[in-house]
Specification:
It is a single chain. Helix 9 links the parallel strand 10 and strand 11. The strands form two sheets. The chain has an eight-stranded mixed beta sheet, with helices on both faces. A three-stranded antiparallel beta sheet has the order 7-9-8. By secondary structure, the protein is of the alpha/beta class. It is 30% helix and 19% strand. It is built from eleven helices and eleven strands. The chain has one domain: Rossmann fold, CATH 3.40.50.1820. The longest helix has 15 residues. One of its GO terms (molecular function) is hydrolase activity. This is Alpha/beta hydrolase. Keywords: Hydrolase. It comes from Falsiruegeria litorea.
Length: 297
């Protein structure tokens, strides 16, 4: 690893929170595309390490979403709040010629950012972005009754070591699907020191709040037609109502790629919702191809 390959952590101060992010190849900013990565619920910016290691040298930024990793902010009730965070982040850093790469919650958020910044975003890669079918959103109240708590709120919060966390998860689905490197990275950077103990960087109540509020993402359907840059949608086999919440399967609407102006649908039934951690080389290959497709500035 050269000094330019090494991740450098920065902070971006916004109106009501601070977003932490990791930058690589800052020397290449302005000479080509900037890759902007956003992770899934409960994860963090460094979860992209294995994907980025398989890419050619390119300017990249991986952000810790609100309440995740080293970013501030607590539980939230609206996915569009996180979209506004990232839109403000893009403005504050004055990012241009962006190719957005988002997984799960991060995909939904970067789709929002693309809608808000059509002049800045030149390509969008959505990895199971939890943009669900319209009929699923219509069932919001029955699927996510008000006043209920997601089981993630009861997650084990404190660990004695990274190895304890690895050992706890390595044989459990979906973590058992991860590459060994991805699992190690998740655990290493998914814990922070707090009051002399190692605790989850994404507090259980933050993770639970995200899982209880995906239906707030429904309004994105009103704006998908405005996305004109090239969009690639990666998705696994679609979950049904009986398997709702089984995120080894895909929550993504199969019609998503057809709802944008220039979309490509890539269905991989042999993979799960957790593609970046399960098949980082495949994700990196898809990103590399998409960069070549993004129009020049």
């Amino acid at each position: 690893m050269t000094s330019q390959d090494a991740p450098v952590r920065h902070s971006c101060h916004l109106a009501d929170l601070t977003l932490s992010y990791v930058e690589r190849h800052a020397d290449l900013r302005g000479t080509g595309p900037t890759l902007l990565f956003a992770h899934a619920t409960g994860f963090h910016a460094r979860i992209w390490d294995e994907v980025i290691a398989a890419l050619p040298a390119v300017h990249s930024i991986c952000v810790d979403l609100r309440g995740h990793g080293h970013s501030t902010g607590g539980p939230f009730t609206d996915w569009f709040d996180l979209g506004r965070d990232i839109s403000a982040f893009i403005d504050r850093l004055d990012l241009t010629n962006i190719t957005c790469v988002g997984h799960s919650l991060g995909g939904h958020i970067l789709a929002q950012a693309t809608i808000a910044h059509p002049d800045r975003v030149k390509g969008l890669i959505l990895i199971d972005p939890v943009i669900m079918a319209p009929e699923i959103y219509a069932m919001a109240e029955s699927l996510f009754p008000k006043g209920t708590q997601h089981p993630a709120a009861q997650r084990k919060r404190n660990f004695t070591s990274v190895q304890e966390m690895v050992d706890r998860f390595k044989d459990r689905s979906p973590y058992s699907l991860f590459t060994p490197t991805a699992l190690e990275t998740y655990c290493t950077h998914g814990l922070i020191e707090h009051d002399g103990a190692l605790t989850l960087a994404c507090a259980p109540e933050v993770e639970a709040s995200s899982y209880m509020s995906p239906m707030t993402g429904a309004p994105i359907h009103d704006h998908l037609h405005t996305i004109t840059c090239p969009v690639v949608v990666l998705r696994a086999d679609t979950m049904d109502l009986a398997s709702l919440g089984d995120f080894t399967r895909s929550p993504t609407w199969p019609g998503l790629a057809g709802a944008v102006t220039n979309g490509t649908d890539i269905h991989r039934p042999n993979l799960s919702h957790f593609m970046p951690m399960q098949a980082p080389d495949f994700v990196a290959e898809t990103v590399s191809k998409a960069i070549a497709l993004a129009p020049a500035t």
